[in-house]
UniProtKB/TrEMBL annotation:
Cell compartments where the protein resides: Cytoplasm
Organism: Massilimicrobiota timonensis
Protein name as catalogued: Imidazoleglycerol-phosphate dehydratase
Entry's EC annotation: 4.2.1.19
Family to which the UniProt record says this protein belongs: Belongs to the imidazoleglycerol-phosphate dehydratase family.
Pathway participation: Amino-acid biosynthesis; L-histidine biosynthesis; L-histidine from 5-phospho-alpha-D-ribose 1-diphosphate: step 6/9
InterPro entries xref list: IGPD_sf, ImidazoleglycerolP_deHydtase, ImidazoleglycerP_deHydtase_CS, Ribosomal_Su5_D2-typ_SF
Catalysis performed (reactions): D-erythro-1-(imidazol-4-yl)glycerol 3-phosphate = 3-(imidazol-4-yl)-2-oxopropyl phosphate + H2O
The entry's keywords: Amino-acid biosynthesis, Cytoplasm, Histidine biosynthesis, Lyase
Length: 195
């Protein structure tokens, strides 16, 4: 089983996260931010990964540190759970519609962190969630999972729908990328021989 568990403690946040890439989409999430809980629950469901998160952050300041640090720890969990990446498909892509919104995520578990993020979010805040932090979350995931991650909103009007489509498309694309290719279980999908 490809699993990881990471605890990260700073003056701003305390995060305990576990991830199972070969799970059943079971989520136990408590970040202190209702919208973030909802997004991570959807992410677990659509990826099929089991995800457990307990986070305490300085929400009396704002949501910045909590959301960015959640991205850091999720990225580290993904990287650790993947190990040497033998047998994985490596690439994933998924377009998801959420009512009027369309978002496509394309990713490569390349070992090279890079984020391309094209999205316009009309609303600045959803509950305690500051929507500008969406980009910072995915940047932190990309940097710490060592993945190339492209997120493109083709169109959309409702901020909740756009962000939800991002998390769902990211989940489905990553699900593809981490799948084991039964014909190449002992191979690393790179001409360099390493990812």
């Amino acid at each position: 089983m490809r699993k990881s568990q990471i605890k990260r403690e700073t003056r701003e946040t305390s995060i305990d996260m576990s991830l199972n890439l070969d799970g059943q989409g079971i989520a136990q999430i408590d970040t202190g931010i209702g919208f973030m809980d909802h997004m991570l629950e959807l992410w677990a469901f659509h990826s099929g990964f089991d995800l457990k998160v307990i986070c305490h952050g300085d929400l009396n300041v704002d949501s910045h540190h909590t959301i960015e640090d959640l991205g850091i720890v999720l990225g580290e969990c993904i990287k650790e759970a993947l190990g040497d990446k033998k047998g994985i498909y490596r690439y994933g892509q998924m377009a998801i519609v959420m009512d009027e919104a369309l978002v496509t995520t394309t990713l490569d578990l390349s070992g090279r962190p890079y984020l391309v993020y094209h999205a316009q979010l009309p609303c600045m805040k959803l509950g305690q969630y500051e929507t500008e932090m969406t980009k910072e979350f995915f940047k932190a995931v990309s940097d710490h999972a060592m993945m190339t991650l492209h997120i493109h909103e083709s169109y959309g009007e409702n901020t909740h729908h756009i962000i939800e489509a991002m998390f769902k498309s990211f989940a489905r694309a990553l699900k593809q990328a981490v799948m084991i290719d039964e014909n190449h279980q002992d191979q690393i999908v790179s001409s360099k021989g390493v990812l």
